[in-house]
From TrEMBL, chains A, B:
A UniProt-annotated Pfam family: NUDIX
SUPFAM superfamilies xref list: Nudix, Winged helix' DNA-binding domain
Segments for region (Disordered): 212-255
Domain Nudix hydrolase: residue ranges: 7-147
Protein name per UniProt: ADP-ribose pyrophosphatase YjhB (NUDIX family)
Phylogenetic lineage: Bacteria, Bacillati, Actinomycetota, Actinomycetes, Micrococcales
InterPro entries per UniProt: NUDIX_hydrolase-like_dom_sf, NUDIX_hydrolase_dom, WH-like_DNA-bd_sf, WH_DNA-bd_sf, WHD_NrtR
PANTHER family given in the database record: ADP-RIBOSE PYROPHOSPHATASE, SLR1690 PROTEIN
Length: 255, 255
DNA sequence: CCAAAAGTGTTGGTGGTACACCCATGC
DNA sequence: GCATGGGTGTACCACCAACACTTTTGG
């Protein structure tokens, strides 16, 4: 019983979200929600697209492992990272029992520019995903509903935006995630009422209309962990990454 | 590398909630929220109280394992069972890396009567817990906030009550969980507005005041899985249990 | 001046809280 | 009849969606 003994194997995967400006059908630039996927280089599921992840190292915390694999596959570091759910149906991975602790993450839109993207890592539009390996399609669907639900009662949209942003950009993020238009007037008031928005005093020039104010989020409100007592506490998994090292395929790849 | 090789071990634990009538300080019978704990019979944490649970068998689903260990320790079967969170800090269990997928469950109050309770299994009042092994105290705190949060936007209180119940009993459950008094008039309207309550037509006699109506929950509303798409779907882990079998201590016990 | 988006004001509906009040039963 | 909770009616307040309206820029 070397490594296929009577034990489930533990993997950690992450659903990563970012906002990308994408040309709309009528040419207007509407932001869209995007997700990076990696191509599987081994069986099972060879060639299929899957969520970035890897086996859990014995001495690494779950959250650190999620942040690290995220960084290894995309080159990015998450602004927001939270556990989503643990998937462990006995038959979800052919051949071997695999239990996956899945996280979801948000990254800044301006970082996506310099994100890795090659034959084996690609960003997909949220409503135009390819066929996924294992049960990853269901996982993404679940992560999407969690993101949408949480966006409405929490203020996490800032994790998808650069340091400063206009009210319209913030609204664009909400509209892209919720997939519906929001009233600009009411949206502004709701956001201002949270007290987490700080007017930088500067304005964005160069538009062909009245220049909008630039805001940033009050850091006093966001790093303070939400009322979830025990876990959560989205630290950034500050695990450094030295070069493009082999990644997860030291021996075999999990789902 | 027999079984202490470089892999984390996977355990499944469950925080079980039930309502018990408990004599109040002034003699009045107010329901209270109770949690069963098991005494650890091995190191680490020998003698301490801990959440019921066990190692994950290779061919059993996470939810089935949670339901089974729940049944083995308490003799009860859950009316509600949902995944809570996965705890996996590297140092949470001395000596060995253990990752615990934790569920939370609700059981009917009338079943608690015939629940197991001996030297090694005991029910504790939610606000009078003993010192717990490992990080189980934090886990219970987290489960409590989840229960409280979910009670307010979902209708899960029925899982803590018998088939039929009065409006006051239902309110008593909410008050016990939320730890505050609720306005009877407003509570009634709120509950009636959900449309999930069915008046059985019968009334509870024997009180020394106007006999209250007996309700039951509309089964058309509760088994229908909530809008959580992927996981959830609280099936009852229908794994039979043949007698008081050795349980999890075939080789060693997890946390 | 005009287009276009920023930003403000006002109104009506909805849901929740507080609280006054009547109803039906046991004793 | 009277104490006790069961059950109803109603006024008020906070929040939110809808939408009319004013402001400020670029061209």
């Amino acid at each position: 019983m070397s490594q296929h003994d009577a034990q489930a194997r533990l993997a950690v995967s992450t659903v990563i979200f970012a906002i990308s400006p994408e040309p709309d059908d009528d040419g207007a630039v509407r932001p869209s929600l995007r997700i990076p996927l990696v191509r599987r280089l081994r069986e099972p599921g060879l060639g299929r697209w899957a969520l970035p992840g890897g086996w859990l190292p014995v001495h690494e915390s779950l959250e650190a492992a999620a942040g690290r694999t995220l960084n290894e596959t995309t080159g990015l570091s998450p602004r927001y990272l939270e556990q989503l759910y643990t998937f462990g149906e006995p038959d979800r991975s052919p051949g071997e029992r695999v239990v996956s602790v899945v996280y979801w993450a948000l990254v800044h839109s301006d970082e996506v520019q310099r994100a890795v993207s090659d034959d084996n890592v690609r960003w997909f539009d949220e409503d135009d995903l390819p066929e996924l390996a294992f049960d990853h399609a269901a996982i993404v669907v679940y992560a999407l509903t969690r993101l949408r639900t949480k966006l409405e009662y929490s203020r996490i949209a800032h994790a998808l935006l650069p340091e400063t942003f206009t009210m319209a950009e913030l609204r664009g993020v909400h509209e892209a995630v919720l997939r519906r238009r929001l009233d600009p007037a009411n949206f502004r008031r709701t956001m201002e009422a949270t007290g987490t928005l700080v007017d930088t005093g500067r304005r964005l020039a160069g538009t062909r209309h009245r220049p909008p104010a630039l805001y940033r989020f009050d850091p006093a409100h966001s790093p303070a962990a939400p009322p979830s007592p025990a876990p959560a506490a989205p630290h950034h998994a500050a695990s450094a990454l030295e070069g493009p090292r082999p990644g997860t395929d030291s021996k075999d790849t999990p789902e």
